[in-house]
Amino acid sequence: MESLVALLKSRNLTISSCESLTAGMFSAAIAAVPGASGVLQGALVTYQNHIKEEVAHVEKEIIDTYGVISAQCAQAMAIHTRELMHSDLCVSFTGNAGPGCMEGKEAGLVYCCIAGEKGLKTYEFHLSYERNRLREEVVKRMAENVISYIK
After folding, report:
1. Domain range holding 10?
2. pLDDT of 102
3. What residues does the CinA C-terminal domain cover (predicted)?
């Protein structure tokens, strides 16, 4: 995360997150880096569907049509949280860490999205790690993806 924070600082960019699957792990990892207060605007943990709707403003129609484990939900989470936090970038995380199926979708299916001035970049992962290892891996991968998005 040190390289992400350094890059954000060097580009004078701010970041926020909207996290379901990761329950705040991404923002906590950023906050662990000295100087993170210069780039981290804030984060939402939207573990329950009604919080996604009421706080992150994910449209009920998206959840009803595609489910919370979907690219569409990840995109709405990132777009609306970026607006809410007034950040340059927002990263969202939603998926099924397992162990069983959810919404008829297999464990290990994850969707993330970066929203920024360059538009949306959406990621779909199919991972087969134990629950918490999967969450850590997604945080790591998305930190790398944010660096690539910025560059």
Report:
1. 2-150
2. 87
3. 2-144
* CA separation for the pair 2, 108 (Å, rounded): 27
* CB 50 within 8 Å of CB 57: no
**Alpha-helical runs (H) found in 21-110:** 25-31, 49-54, 60-66, 71-85
Distance, in Å, from the CA atom of 125 to the CA atom of 85, rounded to the nearest integer, reads 26
Q: What is the DSSP letter of 26?
A: H
137 closest CA partner among 115, 107, 101, 110: 110
Question: How many domains, the chain?
Answer: 1
Q: What percent of the chain has pLDDT over 70?
A: 100
| Segment 109-149, tens digit of pLDDT | 999 999 999 999 999 999 999 999 999 999 999 999 999 99
CA-to-CA separations, 112 to 27, 36, 38, in angstroms, rounded = 14, 22, 24
- Kind of pairing, strands 15-19 and 109-116? unpaired
